[in-house]
Amino acid sequence: MRGRGATAILVLAGLLVVACVLAAGVGAVSIPPGRSVAILAHALGLGSPGDWLHHEEVILTTIRIPRVLVAVLAGGGLALSGAVMQGIFRNPMADPGVIGVSSGASLGSVIALYAGWAAASVLWLPATAFAGALLCSFLVYGIATSRGRTPVSTLLLAGIAVGGMAVSLTSLVLFLSLANYEVGRQMMLWLMGGLDGRGWLHVRLAAAPVLLGSAWLCLYARDLNVLLTGEESAMALGIDVPRTRRRLLVLSVLVTAATVSVAGVVSFVGLVVPHILRLVLGPDHRRLLPASFLGGALFLVLADLACRTMVESEELRLGVVTSLIGGPFFIYLLIQNRRRTETL
Amino acid sequence: MTLLEARDLRFAYDGREVLSGVSFAVAEGEFLGVIGPNGSGKSTLLRILLGILAPATGEVRLGGDAIRSMPRERIARRAAFLPQGAHSDFAFTVREIVAMGRTPWLGRFRPEGPGDHAAIAGAMRQTGTDPFADRLVTELSGGERQRVFLARAFAQEAPVLVLDEPNANLDLLHAFHLVDLVRQRVRRSAAAVAALHDLTLAARVCDRILVLQEGRVAALGSPGDVLTPDLLRGVFGVRARVSRDEDGHLLVGVQGPAA
Fold it and tell me: By CB atoms within 10 Å of each CB, which of A178, A198, B77, B162 scores lowest?
């Protein structure tokens, strides 16, 4: 499978397009794939009006397509920044969660719901989640940094401490809100992640940070490769290691914060997707980063489709579904690779 | 032509002086060995030469320019490094590892060109790593792996090679081969500075040897002048016999601790 990076990326891109068209067609009102494509082409000014019903067009262009696009952005951003974090820390267990991004976003969002801001404007929830994610991760980074140096182990420990406190504060706010059933319910739903009710607003919010951040991160693929062979090696090959690591960290935190702010807490995507792709494609980030974006997007589009269709009356929560698919699969990979790693 | 120059280097770590008053110059075509007991400052010296550590006072000049004011990338174009026990936990292919040597020559928007491919192929040919170009570096033997990382340093096309104990963990034949590859490269217009622990090997490949003792230069000169029983007793605390083989090469035999 090695050396076939371009093929793998094309296959993933093709699968993603197919999955998007399928996902856009499935729902309470079912739209056949051919008709979805025709409606989409027409909306983009590419085709003549066909024989579809008006409400089909409305459902597709105002509900289904933006929702699928949010899934693409969130899944792609999470998986790509997961791959970057694993490269920065030279540890396949790392993801942006380790430095407090998702716990910070959770705290921000429950505060917005508790204070009633979220009811005032749909912008408040993503905005506070984004702010919480950034604040929490920069706090972690600040605690771990002294005199311009950030030891990785201190960073991870600070992430555990600050993340743990954010989780406790989130629980506290949740507890204070229990009396108000609707607010408490909203919080629980957000914390379990989901794309229900996401529209063009959320696409617009996430598109710029996720796409620009991801493209920027891909430009650092070679630096990440060299970093994997050791810090001193990388310096001797001309890389300013602290500065590069800092940039990569800030960019991947921005990308993750943007995804969490529109999708809620969705776990395992950043961990499992790069892990699988690394097994298939090898560790070269020039293949791994774009493949992770496409693979993460594909995974989340399908997971969201499962959320919408598995149970008839109610939508399942996205974060729950990704954990229940990702967790067992990850355990399977661990068992498969158990013999190859060092033992205690 | 002087490719590398160290001037009065001093380095302290947590108030403890690690290096003091270290000066030397290495010319094109020259192989300088650095020897000394554990903790004598060999690794620190090599890291200062590469700009990985900054000296408290003194300066390093590469190709006539002080590295203090050079961006990392420019340092890397002039000095390449083979770290001790270089390895990768990640399953890159041999070719991918060697290609990393081109990093200082590539821009963020400039992919590898014909010149880079030629440098990579040349480095693999010189080190004999081309037969296993597509194997994973995680699956190689210690000797093969060390040659791959040496090929990466060659691909960097820097005139100065810095090697930290390149023979650690290599058996006799592989150790000899590796140092010989460096020796050949140095003859073709380069210079090398290597920390070595095998003194007979050092005597054989080095033009000059620098002896470090507690961070100071205890001796600097040709192997024949430097590697004497007196010096080995004074610096390493061992009783040693120094003789010559039929070709005139020095043989250093350590007999035991000095009384």
Answer: A178
